[in-house]
TrEMBL record:
Lineage of source species: Eukaryota, Metazoa, Chordata, Craniata, Vertebrata
GO CC terms: nucleus
Annotated organism of origin: Hippoglossus hippoglossus
Domain Nuclear receptor: from-to ranges: 1-76
Name the UniProt record assigns to this protein: Estrogen receptor alpha
Keyword DNA-binding part of the UniProt annotation: yes
CDD domains attached to this UniProt entry: NR_DBD_ER
Length: 342
């Protein structure tokens, strides 16, 4: 007996590249053919099982992509049958359909093939369409935490640092879970996973903080119940400067009207691009498989460029926005260095 990879119900067959039930097969078919800009009413972490699969379309579609569903998915053990069928009459239509599908995904696949050939080995990253990447990235986002602080007590340098350090420790646990959901991350060696996280953790925390604070000018939202302004942060020596930099970057994000798709791409780029700086820091060892990390980085960058291209703006404005967003990452790295010094 086979079970559905999405909801664990009994599978009716091998559909879109995975074993799935009729319900999830039909849902995925509807999603890829028409309306699919679903929104999760909660935190993008809804449980999808036989009884609750209809409760959240956004999380159900994310689960479909996570388990490997894809348009035109072909079962791996059918490859010999397909090769044998090529020599039989009546396969021209199937060949034509396959070529049409290849043509639709050619730009992304070509990019992946070039990267793989430079590595001298087989690619470890599954070829995904930009929209699939965006769905996965948004679904991987961690929840906003609560600080569990004792309200009503004035902040001192000790209590403030203890509170922020405790929050950072808890966020790091969620950051590791987030990184594991990025396309291709679990295929990296443990060494490379650790190196990327160790070299970028503060930048990743900072861009998350800035994103949470984007709608609250003059405030930094560290947690649902921990919202601080510059004066409150001033109780820690040197913290006011970092607060000012964070608030200024949040203001810039607000001016650019950064959206969630752009944010999740920038956040992933920070993690993956940190491997490029191993030559200039004594704390980070060289990555074992730089080509695989570069391939992942290109996948995320492709998704960002694709999303911006859907805005309908003139091409020159699209290029300008790409540059504006990527330039912000240098400011976040600068803030991270300041934070490390502190």
């Amino acid at each position: 007996t086979r079970f559905c990879a999405v909801c664990s119900d009994y599978a009716s067959g091998y559909h879109y590249g995975v074993w799935s039930c009729e319900g999830c097969k039909a849902f995925f078919k509807r999603s890829i053919q028409g309306h699919n800009d679903y929104m999760c009413p909660a935190t993008n972490q809804c449980t999808i099982d036989r009884n609750r699969r209809k409760s959240c379309q956004a999380c159900r579609l994310r689960k479909c992509y996570e388990v490997g569903m894809m348009k035109g998915g072909v079962r791996k053990d059918r490859s010999r049958v397909l090769r044998r069928d090529k020599r039989r009459p009546g396969t021209n239509d199937r060949d034509k359909a396959s070529k049409d599908q290849d043509h639709k995904t050619a730009p992304l696949q070509d990019g992946r093939k070039r990267s793989s050939s430079t590595a001298g080995g087989k690619s470890s990253v599954t070829v995904m369409l930009p929209d699939q990447v965006l769905v996965l990235l948004q679904g991987a986002e961690p929840p906003i935490l609560c600080s569990r602080q004792k309200l009503g007590e004035p902040y001192t340098e000790v209590t403030m640092m203890t509170l922020l350090t405790s929050m950072a420790d808890r966020e790091l646990v969620h950051m590791i879970a987030w990184a594991k959901k990025l396309p291709g991350f679990l295929q990296l060696s443990l060494h490379d996973q650790v190196q990327l996280l160790e070299s970028s953790w503060l930048e990743v925390l900072m861009i998350g903080l800035i994103w949470r604070s984007i709608q609250c000018p003059g405030k930094l939202i560290f947690a649902q119940d921990l919202i601080l302004d510059r004066n409150e942060g001033n109780c820690v020596e040197g913290m006011a400067e970092i607060f000012d930099m964070l608030l200024a970057t949040a203001s810039r994000f607000r001016t650019l009207k950064l959206n969630s798709e752009e944010f999740v791409c920038l956040k992933a780029i920070i993690l993956l691009n940190s491997g490029s700086f191993s030559f200039c820091t004594g704390t980070m060892e060289p990555l074992h498989n730089t080509s695989a990390v570069q391939e992942m980085l290109e996948t995320i960058t492709d998704a960002l460029i694709h999303h911006i291209s859907q805005s309908g703006c003139p091409v020159q404005q699209q290029w300008r926005r790409q540059a504006q967003l990527l330039l912000l990452l240098s400011h976040i790295r600068h803030m991270s260095n300041k934070g490390m010094e502190h």
